[in-house]
Hints:
Layout: H1 4-7, H2 10-33, H3 38-43, H4 51-70
Amino acid sequence: IIEKGELCSPFFIKLKVxxxxxxxxxxxxxxxxxxxxLIKSLMGASLKMDDKSWMMLSKRWAFFFLFLAIC
Length: 71
C-alpha cells in the first residue's frame, strides 16, 4: 500500500513523468510493431495524410517520448 505522503515525495513526482513518457512510447512502438499508426485514430479527422506518413509520424513521436523518458 502506498501512503499519501509517498505520492507527494519529490522522487515520485520526478519518476512519474518518466513513467508516463515510457508508457506513451511503448504504446506507439506497439502500434508500429502491428503496423497500425495509433496517432491516426486520435488526429485522423484533423490531418489528412496517407498511411506511410502516419507511420512516420508515429515513429517520430515514439522516439520523442522515449528520448524524454531517458533524459
